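User: Show me a protein chain along with its predicted structure.
Assistant: Here is one chain, sequence first, then structure tokens.
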Amino acid sequence: MKTYSIGEVAKELNLTPYTLRYYDKEGLIPFVERTSSGTRLFKESDIAALKVIECLKSTGMPIKEIKSFIDWCSEGDSTLQQRYDMFMERKATVEAQIEELRKTIEVIEHKCFYYKTALDAGTEDIHRNNKMEIPITN
């Protein structure tokens, strides 16, 4: 079985070795084996778990809650419902974030159109003089 160093894993996941050590200190990667001298040895399954941790982190989930998820995984099948519920909640959170981003991009697209039209006309007055109503598109 191939193992990877902390540096290799950090590079693969675009993280720093410091971040991985922090995750270890916080109990997020208790499954990572160590040599007798304490060097971490990462397996493919550890890298896959770290990708899930990074996914959860990108949703804004606090480290403490990610730790609960890791603990539930260690507890086995008795926590399947909690893990499912947690991912359903994360899904709802991300869907809300996507909706907010859609609204944001609509405003940005409107402003891009506004300024492009003004640039093409050589003046912002084109919008004022024509009382041009620019609908925000979906």
